[in-house]
Design a protein that fits this description.
Layout lengths: L8 E5 L5 E3 L2 H7 L7 E6 L2 E6 H14 L6 H10 L1 E3 L6 E3 L2 H7 L4 E6 L4 E5 H13 L5 H6 L4
Antiparallel strand pairs: 1-7, 2-6, 3-4, 3-5, 4-8, 7-8
Subunit structure: Forms oligomers.
Subcellular location: Cytoplasm, Nucleoid
Keywords: Cytoplasm, DNA-binding, Repeat, Transcription, Transcription regulation
């Protein structure tokens, strides 16, 4: 069976309680997992949403290698900041205020599928990130060649 992935991006508005309407195409992917539980993790400039199974794989990697290469501070930041979550009956996801503040999320956000997880960016930060990627696109050439894409 082919693994289903999170793809594409959508723009959303957080309501006054910090909830966002979770895109149907992302919830369809989530349904392919045994558990519908989600993990929301801080990631410096944005948040990441992981299906529980994907997060548990990442936790195993952190457990096995987190003490290497002086990563304990990063593990502390990410693991200490995670929140377990689930979609409500209306298909909304509550982003806790602590995580919204940590990632600088205002009212307008962008959800971006990253195959195994979803990113949540403040819309202004997303625009800056995208411009930086466009400006440095040639920097990806070697890696893309190594993967056989170029």
């Amino acid at each position: 069976m082919r693994k289903v992935r999170f793809r594409s991006r959508t723009e959303h508005t957080l309501d006054t309680k910090g909830r966002l309407n979770f895109p149907r195409r992302f919830s369809d992917v989530l349904e392919s997992f045994e558990s519908q539980d989600l993990i929301i993790a801080p990631f410096k400039t944005h948040l990441r949403i992981y299906p529980l199974a994907e997060w548990e794989e990442l936790e195993t990697k952190m457990h096995n290698h987190g003490g290497e290469q002086n990563l304990s501070g990063w593990v502390r930041y990410v693991v200490g900041g995670v929140v377990e979550a689930a979609l409500d009956k209306q298909g909304r996801l509550l982003i806790p205020q602590t995580l919204r503040l940590d990632a600088g999320l205002e009212k307008n956000v962008v959800l971006n599928g990253m195959l195994s997880w979803i990113e949540i960016w403040d819309a202004t930060a997303w625009a800056s990130e995208q411009q930086a990627v466009r400006d440095g696109f040639e920097d990806f050439s070697e890696g893309l060649r190594n993967m056989g894409i170029l």
